[in-house]
Amino acid sequence: MARAEIAVSGLGLVTPGGVGVGQSWEAALAGRPAAALDPALKGGIVRLSCRVPEFDAEELLGARRALRLDPFVQFALVAAREAVADAGLDPATWDGARVGVVLGCADGGPGTVETQHRVLLHEGPTRVSPLVLPMQLPNMLAGQAAIEFGATGPNLVVATACASGATAIGTARDLLLLDRCDIVLAGGSEAMITPLVMAGFARMGALSRREDDPATASRPFDADRDGFVAGEGAGVVVLERAADARARGARVRALIAGYGSAADAHHMTSPHPGGRGVEAAIRTAIEDAGAHPRDVQHVNAHGTSTPLNDLAEAQTLRRVLPGTPLVSSTKGVTGHLLGAAGAVEAAFGVLSIENGVVPPTAGLRTLDPRLEIEVPTTVTSARIDLVLSNSFGFGGQNAVLAIARP
Amino acid sequence: MFETLKEILVSKLKVTPEQVTPEATREDVELDSLAVVELSLLLEKELGMNISDDELLELDTIGEMAELMEQRSTKV
Q: Which tens digit of pLDDT belongs to each residue from A314-329?
């Protein structure tokens, strides 16, 4: 029996481009960078970030609920609600036991940890909030979604650093192929723009220092790129077997046709210079989709704007994909959403197929001459049948999704 | 003292004001065991009042909590 097709039937986004798929996609197509000087990072080494604009958690989730949720969970719940509604599903009537949740994040709720650590140091342990653990534990992402939607099926959070969102979607697809459930809310969420985390990234040399020109700080594949700009937000997709989606009259927006996961086994932060794990993940995803490397027409790249990532990634794409696909990094607009990036960018991949357009890479002025790939800097119309969405994490964890036209 | 307690529940724990009545139970105002620990911490921090979460959990209503607060504040 042929393997089931896995459909994306709903999309939900909370990004630095805006709250909702409409605003996020519009910002991506407009090439409008979200990076700005962040007052919350005053005194930090690098004060640039990409925040979600106009996210009113009390308004969206209710004051009492918002108070008890770290932003990384707030973003995910808002994105998941949009995805569920987009899929035309009603949690009041579905069989919750057949609904799974697989979400990813790199760091849980470091903002909650840092706040409560200050309380511990300055006021003592008896003043520490009883909510410090239930608010910051990474697994709460999926646990809170289960509560919100009555989803009592398989429920887990994956952590592959900046590949987490893509790993979650790939893992969710596997659950559906194994018939562990019928519907999965899958994606990633991140809210780690905090003083300690940002100090850590800056000390690693990972961040752009271009504070004098925030709009071009994130400039993937540019000759003068100098690091990423940290972003926050969430992306959630509803996955189900395509036959199930069609049977209930739902729209199959795209297929998660293939998934590749591979480790560099090289270094705790630097990508393998030969792109070993990246190449393996790309080849696996394409093969899993029953496609050929020349079939790939568009890549939503990991493209962080760090010198090492973009070089290794571009060289690998050049070597592995003979069809000269149009390569975009939407991180020029959103910054790097870390554990949410893979899910947000997979959603953009779905939208590229649906709309026949490839988003520009904002911030890019002069393509690094060593990178022999095609990177549009304006919205480019093209029929897209097969997209790769690349996500690579510190620790050498690589996840690639092959997204296809249904 | 009821008004003091209500103010803390509403402003700090974001309980809906209309829900806070003397007859309301902990369930009515959605105070789970974690929120009761928070409330105990707030009473100490805001009012200097030592009432443990265990003591609060033994009481059935918001009114009874306010009464205990009254007793504690007059003893001092």
A: 999 999 999 899 999 9
Name the CA dihedral angle for A105, A106, A112, A115, rounded to a multiple of 10 degrees. Answer: -160
Residue A1 resides in a domain: no
A216, A247, A278 - which closes a domain: A247
Q: Across the 406 residues of chain A, what is the mean pLDDT of every consecutive 10-residue run?
A: 89 98 98 98 98 97 96 98 98 97 98 98 97 98 98 98 98 98 98 98 97 97 98 98 98 98 94 93 98 98 97 96 96 98 98 98 97 97 98 97 98
Last residue of a domain, one of A193, A228, A247: A247
pTM over 0.90: yes
* Residue B76 binned pLDDT confidence (cut-offs 50, 70, 90): low
Per-residue confidence (pLDDT) for residue A82, from 0 to 100: 98
* Domain B2-75 grouped into CATH 1.10.1200.10: yes
B32 labelled catalytic = yes
| Residue A159 shares a structural domain with residue A294 | no
Chain B hits for A66, CB-CB cut-off 8 Å, are 14
Whether residue A198 sits in one domain with residue A66: yes
Domains in chain A, number: 2
pLDDT at B61 over 90: yes
Place B74 in a pLDDT band, splitting at 50, 70 and 90.
confident
Looking at the structure, tell me whether residues A74 and A179 fall in a common domain.
yes
- Give the span between the Cα atoms of A33 and A20, in whole angstroms: 17
Contact between chains at A131 and B34 (C-beta distance less than 8 A): yes
ipTM of the prediction: 0.90
Q: Looking at the partner chain, which of A58, A64, A131 has a beta carbon nearest the beta carbon of B15?
A: A64
- What was the pLDDT predicted at A2? 72
Q: What is the CATH number of the domain that holds A155?
A: 3.40.47.10
Do the beta carbons of residue A386 and residue A289 sit within 8 Å?
yes
- Catalytic center residues of A: 162, 302, 336
Strand ranges (E), A114-164: 155-158
Q: Is residue A110 within 8 Å of residue A195, measured between CB atoms? A: no
Check CB contact under 8 Å for A127 and B45. Answer: yes
Residue A248 main-chain phi, psi, to 5 deg: -95, 10
Query: A-side interface with B, Cβ within 8 Å?
Result: 58, 63-64, 66-68, 126-127, 129-131, 134
Residues of B with Cβ-Cβ distance to A126 under 8 angstroms? 41, 44
- C-beta atoms of A130 and B15 within 8 A: no
Beta bridge partners of A14: A19, A234
B57 touches chain A (CB under 8 A): no
Whether A252 maps to a domain, the answer reads no
Mark residue A176 as left, alpha or beta (left: phi above 0; alpha: psi -120 to 50; beta: remaining): alpha
Domain ranges of chain B: 2-75
Nearest CA in chain A to B10: A64
* A64/B30 CB distance under 8 A: yes
CB atoms within 10 A of CB A207: 26
